[in-house]
Phosphoacetylglucosamine mutase (Mus musculus), 542 residues
Amino acid sequence: MDLEAVCKRSALHAKPQGLILQYGTAGFRTNAQHLDHIMFRMGLLAVLRSKQTRSTIGVMVTASHNPEEDNGVKLVDPLGEMLAPSWEEHATCLASAEEQDVRQVLAAIVEKEAEDLTQTAFVVIARDTRPSSEKLSQSVIDGVTVLGGQFHDYGLLTTPQLHYMVYCRNSGGRYGQATVEGYCQKLSKAFVDLTNQVSCSGDVKRSVKVDCANGIGALKLREMEHYFSRGLSVLLFNDGTQGRLNHLCGADFVKSQQKPPQGIEMKSGERCCSFDGDADRIVYYYCDADGHFHLIDGDKIATLISSFLKELLLEIGESVNLGVVQTAYANGSSTRYLEEVMKVPVYCTKTGVKHLHHKAQEFDIGVYFEANGHGTALFSEAVEVKIKRLAQELDDGKGKAARTLASIIDLFNQAAGDAISDMLVIEAILALKGLTVQQWDAIYVDLPNRQLKVKVADRRVISTTDAERQAVTPPGLQEAINDLVKKYTLARAFVRPSGTEDIVRVYAEANSQESADRLAYEVSLLVFQLAGGIGERPQPTF
């Protein structure tokens, strides 16, 4: 490792004095002007990670649902997963090092990880459509090449597509072909196989309206739609030709604002969905006959998928360990429906997709979705092999169910939550079950809820346990929350510190909106009083 050359090249990507950024679940994200040094250094880190794992590593340049002027970067580990936690620490140290300390930090990583520097390194890189992304991905390439790493630049991809490419390259082609065409063909073949089973009354073609957040999703859906156009008509809105990325559109906007995006015309009963900026989240929605907006978020997506998988497994007669993974933010009605009606076990983890993904890997089939629409289903290799064998061997009803499940397995991008893949899964299930979007929405009624934030002097005052559903400190807070919850019907509430700023997030739900609002307000007051609230006291929202 020629540290002298690295230091010379690093000086061309100088770090702004005093800028400290933390590598989190989403990697690094901030205003694009501050990221040149980070990109270069993540190119260096990707080479070291590749040498250590003896695998291809991915680097994705994106800031997902953030505004267009922001950008970011995240590394993708060998099986398409997020970067290992110990390497997140390396990323933070390397990104935060002042210019004169870069050499020392690199040497420390090499020593701690017992790197074999003679090992070859291969890095794949991709980017979203932000104006800053092309120049920033060039800085990543600069970091890769100065350490002698080889690379392939895929150019414009969705984030889940890069995860897919990394997984394919490291599975020796077992998972699929590591090209855009390979991705399109794998998903489309599975989708067409599924929709071919649907007996159409007349010649009505199914259609869905897709808000692409003015991001990469529009580009990639357009490349792909001719593969499956016989089974589904996709009408694209906010395709990047006019509006700004994520501005008044996209999955995050629709979920947080509880209203349709700008730029899309909705008629009563039409199925619509929104991707986020890098196409790894999806939410559905529709307007009813009275013009009321109805959101179908990640909880209902997980319920539709896991219920369908359970039905198929019962038809096949296979006893398989199926589980659904949620966070504390999942609506209580979804948890009750899954556990009590569908008899599907539900598990709760800490907030953050890496926690859900990790827990889902413990099952033969693990389905996970955050309420924001980020999620997928994971299938163990043993289950996948068994189902595909049964699909070939059996000719009866069990064989048909096995073939359906085999196609569903191929349709999921198991490397990461993927809006395109998830949309095709949802469309296939709705078609196979003959469900309208209103019937899907009606499988259970969400409990009214309210989320609030409380500013505090130091968020570390609050610590939690039980997947963030119980507060451990400060003393007395959880007991006081429990007393408040008892006043309301079907109620629950929890508090958790933000991961990035000195605020405490409050969640409350109950059997009416007024009760949920009152409970959230009362819990906010408790947090303000017991956890060092600053600024204005919480005000009622009802």
